[in-house]
Amino acid sequence: MSIGAVLAQLRGDFPDVTISKIRFLEAEGLVQPGRTPSGYRQFAAADVERLRFVLAAQRDHYLPLKVIKEQLDAADSGAGPAAALPRPPRRLVPIDAPAENVGLPVADDFTAGKELRLTQEELLEQAGIDAAALAELQQYGLVRPGPAGFFDPDAVLVARTVRAMTEFGIEPRHLRAFRAAADREVGLLEQIVTPVYRHRDPEAQARAGEVVRELAALSVTLHTLLVKAGIRGVAGC
Length: 237
Description:
Blueprint: H1 3-11, H2 19-27, E1 34-35, E2 41-42, H3 45-61, H4 65-77, H5 120-127, H6 131-139, H7 153-166, H8 176-197, H9 202-235
Antiparallel strand pairs: 1-2
GO molecular function: DNA binding; DNA-binding transcription factor activity
Domain HTH merR-type: 1-74
Pfam families: MerR_1 (PF13411)
């Protein structure tokens, strides 16, 4: 297959994937398509599945490319168990889905969902909360509408997560530290990638997008490890 045909196959599950993204993953050694005598890329079905693996691992598991490559190398050598592979993509439940099907989904990709805008009513329905709970989330900066008053899909994920945490006695006001920490991390990432985004070269901008994903994935990993270490200390383990 040509790179355009591969893109068409992937777009159904990964709407944000681009030719530049595929080229970047090739440059990083995550996929190695063949070449025609004229130099055009030729992708096999196995290459497409490999790309699905990478994209799902990034989006659904927040894995940095280095870790993904290690998993792929282990699978290539026969040392990696099939259970370690990322699961199929998971998305937000459609607005008209039955309430019993709405659980706590895995957070989407860091740049996905920009085109999808939710009204307050849609957010309340998908998140399973009432207007008072949403007002409290907004009061403490955990959920923020856009300039036009709409919400993005991540707001649903945040609301569902906070709702689950309230079952353990944690209230939104207790989570202000999470918002402050996230804002500090975003500020740090902006300092790193903003100069690259200013380039008009599409390839440079695509590279900046990948840098954002990598740094965000590493930030999530570091945060998780620090919390785990702290809890381990509290538990005396």
